[in-house]
Amino acid sequence: MPGVVSFEEARRIVEGHAGRAREAVAESRSFDTVDLNCARGRALAEELAADRDFPAFARATRDGYAVRASDVERVPARLELIGEIKAGDSGDSFSVRAGQAVSIMTGAPLPAGADAVVMVEYTAEIPPGSGSSQSTASGGRNIEIQRSVKTGENFVPRGAEARAGDVLIEAGRRLDHSLIAIAAAVGRSRVRVFRRPRVAVLATGDELVEVGVTPGPAQIRNSNSYSLAAQVEEAGGEAVRLAIAPDEVGRLRELIEEGLSCDLLLLSGGVSMGKFDLVERVLGELGAELYFTGARIQPGKPVVFGSCARRYFFGLPGNPVSTMVTFRLFARPLIAALAGALPEPLAFLKARLKAEVRTKTGLTRFLPAVISGEFTESEVELAAWQGSGDIAALARANCYLVVPPERERIPAGEMVSVLLP
Ligand code: AMP
Ligand code: MG
Q: Ligand 1 pocket by C-beta < 6 Å: which residues?
């Protein structure tokens, strides 16, 4: 029997469905092939493997001199400078013999015979003609090495990062800038990604008008469709904004049915206990199965999760902050899964609480807050707000302070959990 569940239980329920949804997506083989420049945020529908060894040659990691470590065991040591290799040059033009060195730049291939690089900072060029009993046979320039190096120092051997054929990125990873860099490095200007799920966004409420309309005295503009559409895109979905549904069964039902033609339906409003909160009733009439009808959280307690006509839906409470928080906690992981992405943990940061927080026990709270400071000095404090309808407070907040349900009072100075939006 579905009902009101704890925050953790609600997450587990969503994650269970998300896992199955992802498997179905992976088996569906509905892919897009996209240009790498358009791939950010998409989930890979293939593995990306190294097309050659990484690095493909022993690569110097410092500007300096390629040497034989055994030649510089005792310093200062004077070596014959036989040439220069810059990034992009072939390493084959030189072979370093005992007593010799090659000037080398970061990113250049280590020449044969060398087994280490001495950083330029620990060397000095010896002006030609400065007398020395060890002057070189070639009459070329000499270099003085002032610090020893160990074999293997300051270069990366061929294939040390990856071998040709090694899988570098598994299917299901969402492409961020770093994974895009890997795709580029292995020569993939186009990649296969999962299709983006279409996510219907349906705002309900007789008081709502569209953004371009001047609201009457008791009307408000529909902001939730905009915040939700933006959150859907961030989560890897494609938002489909439907018309505003009035608090009237017939039209609401029509729009819900329209929304159920998408991969996921997000409703905002109409899930509280009020007389005109009709969403659950209409979905019930349509034969919906409900997985939970509330979560012990604040804001967002009336959140509903279920499926209808083989499509998932969320009924998100209409207060703008509740809508955002419940999306973040529950809708986002499901959208990511429908987009083919592997699950990502809901990671909490830790920060020092700046001022005491008092709440009632019983609910896990996600309160708009301000995190400031950097490194080990992160501090967080509640943003001033008038409750979950206070949209103006959001501009003062940059995170949510997480208060566990058993805490009535958290003293200033305690390390607390913070969720980024
Ligand atoms: P409800 O969840 O329908 O009871 O709505 C709770 C509160 O959120 C009410 O004050 C609504 O006016 C407000 N609200 C509902 N939907 C929206 C929306 N789409 N945009 C902004 N505020 C909304
Ligand atoms: Mg309403």
A: 203, 205, 207-208, 220, 222-225, 268-272, 274, 277, 317-320, 389
